[in-house]
Amino acid sequence: MPDTVGAIVLAAGQGLRAGGAKQFQPLAGVPLFIHAVRAFAACESIARLVIVIPQDASADLMAREALDEAALGSRCDLVAGGRRRQDSVHNGLRALGACEWVVVHDSARPFVDRQMIEAGLLAVRATGAASIATPLSDTLKQAGRDMVVTHTLPREGLWTVQTPQVFRRTLLEEAHAQVSEDVTDDATMIERIDGRVTLYAGSSSNIKITTADDFRLAELMLASKRT
Ligand code: CTP
Ligand code: MG
């Protein structure tokens, strides 16, 4: 098992801000979640791949059909998610066979690629937890309820974090066993149990599809890649 890598691709959200089940909405002609699954399936270091999908029969059917159509069906296992994102990760962890490292990725980020995954697998060696991140490029201001600026915050050392995030499996499992409060990512769980998280530089193209506008932006990004 040494150095075996497993991946959990999350696709069990409700997509409320996108107007419903965004993981199954088409991007460049294929369901959104397939883009991320493709990137993981193309990564030789990933030995096990679990896709977390909504807990209902029609989602299961849709996911299986989409995976088979993309010739990815034999490469991954499906498991039902939970109410919160972290519950879905937890279910993914339980379904993942033995492995030393785990990569967690939101399928809502379709531009993930092999290089981003491999860079995470290198970065994780430092502390046992690593997250892709981009340095803040906008100026950060704090304002009151009246929208009047009270402060301009120094930008130095500030990063926005995305997925993929990579963990030593035992550390991630310990974090999930101990942290029950709501968090938005797994790196935060590691911080809650006083673990250390290493950031590694990502790419501004690794956007998250949250709204219908993001689908339009992603279509444009893909079209410009093709030309
Ligand atoms: N996710 C999940 N299980 C949940 C909630 C979220 O697997 N219970 C996944 C989503 O499918 C998505 C990722 O976590 O790939 C990031 O979540 P987000 O962008 O918030 O997606 P949704 O929760 O689906 O969207 P919304 O919050 O608008 O309902
Ligand atoms: Mg959500």
Radius of gyration: 18 Å
Question: Structural class of the helix and strand makeup?
Answer: alpha/beta
Give the distinct bound molecules. Answer: cytidine-5'-triphosphate, magnesium ion
Strand content: 25-35%
Strand order of the largest sheet: 5-4-1-6-10-7-11
Q: Level of helix content?
A: 25-40%
The major beta sheet can be summarized as:
7 strands, mixed
User: What's the number of helices?
Assistant: 7
Relevant terms:
227 residues, alpha/beta, 7 helices, 33% helix, binds cytidine-5'-triphosphate, binds magnesium ion
Structure description:
The chain has seven helices and eleven strands. The strands form three sheets. A seven-stranded mixed sheet has the order 5-4-1-6-10-7-11, sandwiched between helices. Strands 2-3 form a two-stranded antiparallel sheet. It has a two-stranded antiparallel sheet with strand order 8-9. The chain has 227 residues and is α/β, with parallel strands linked by helices. The site of cytidine-5'-triphosphate (CTP) has 21 residues, from α3.
Write the layout of secondary structure elements.
Layout: E1 5-10, E2 26-27, E3 30-31, H1 32-41, E4 46-53, H2 57-69, E5 77-80, H3 85-95, E6 101-106, H4 114-123, E7 129-135, E8 140-143, E9 149-153, E10 159-168, H5 169-178, H6 186-192, E11 198-201, H7 212-226
Parallel strand pairs: 1-4, 1-6, 4-5, 7-11
Antiparallel strand pairs: 2-3, 6-10, 7-10, 8-9
Helix pairs in contact: 5-6
Bound molecules: cytidine-5'-triphosphate and magnesium ion.
Quick rundown:
With 227 residues, this protein is α/β, with parallel strands linked by helices. 33% of the residues lie in helices and 26% in strands. The protein has helices spanning 32-41, 57-69, 85-95, 114-123, 169-178, 186-192, 212-226, and strands at residues 5-10, 26-27, 30-31, 46-53, 77-80, 101-106, 129-135, 140-143, 149-153, 159-168, 198-201.
